[in-house]
């Protein structure tokens, strides 16, 4: 079975070594830290985090993790928090809490969520799930941050929550949190800071004399009422651990779910999950203790040093530039050369053994490739920059990816709400994403088309793209029945 798993993993991007610049966070500390995390995870594999009265270890672990997080991020004696499964769940809970708070304290029944267009997609998911109207604000084309005056104008009687990012995922820049939070407080509105990706790095980066200044963004800022930070990012814990901090217990109370209206056990949930594994929590607790404050400062130094070297190096490559003024570890690279398409660049760079994340343009913002720099990339900047320069030359030779004009025109006439499965499959086939359970090797043409589609149509087609990767259960059963497996005793037949 383990050999089968290893074979399945062979096509995955590498999660160690610093060559995958999205999705994974590698401290570069080696096997000892990983082994500790795995052992801590395994030690509580049978624990059910649903009921803390049955498993008091969950309470002890969560109190310590939340306390450590609150001390790092400007918490006070009143600060409370919840450990969640990741940034998306933390965001969902922050929005849900704000909706319930606005309903209970201000009688808001048709709430709005005010956020810059650069806020993470998880906020749109939360608005969709919990029935909030989004009020998306433009950002400056140079700083990629929202104008506080625009935030002030958007705040109204229906506003349940205003959002700021520290930093925004797409461009790695920190929004003007102090100004936004102050405006929200002046109107009696809650303010959430999405520090999921930067919350564990920026406090350490601001200690470093060689790092760029980091504006105040945490719970020490007046008006900030909640903050999310993912431990599985720059705290380098295993996937599945995030912390949502609240100003006080009274605010957090609005996010709890309790049910006594059934004949079973009384249910109280602080998260969206019921039954939940204690493994990520225990692993996070162990890794936080193991690395410690001094260890995280050193990891931040390596990360910031590498990010700064990459920023200088990217700006020196003809046709490429880093957008905005990112103070931490995230870089958004754009092209100012019409012959150099960053979508094509990403495809070429992957052939060189590096993965960067292509990001379509939106709301007048340019298409980019995203780089998440971790401590494991320390010392690799020259190698990556050389690969970037080579990939840029190759991309220029290949030319930009251009969406089929006729297909774009035809798509503009499609009503996404009326698009059936057969019509969707036909459109995807024309776009080069047909049946077969796999994506094209080169994604630049697909992304160029996606960028040109109406947003509602793109959102209708994307689930079908991903859904096509998964096979029907009957087909999987037939495949398994045709393939000889192991006999009794758990032994696997060799083929």
TrEMBL record:
Keyword field: Aminotransferase, Lyase, Pyridoxal phosphate, Transferase
Source organism, top-level taxon: Bacteria
Gene3D superfamilies: Aspartate Aminotransferase, domain 1, Type I PLP-dependent aspartate aminotransferase-like (Major domain)
Pfam family, one: Pyridoxal_deC
Matches recorded under InterPro entries: GrpII_AminoAcid_Decarb, PyrdxlP-dep_de-COase, PyrdxlP-dep_Trfase, PyrdxlP-dep_Trfase_major, PyrdxlP-dep_Trfase_small
Cleaved signal peptide residues: none
Gene Ontology MF term list: transaminase activity
Cofactor(s) recorded in Swiss-Prot or TrEMBL: pyridoxal 5'-phosphate
Keyword Ubl conjugation among UniProt keywords: no
Family as reported in the entry's similarity comment: Belongs to the group II decarboxylase family. Sphingosine-1-phosphate lyase subfamily.
Full protein name: Aminotransferase class V-fold PLP-dependent enzyme
Upper lineage: Bacteria, Bacillati, Actinomycetota, Actinomycetes, Kitasatosporales
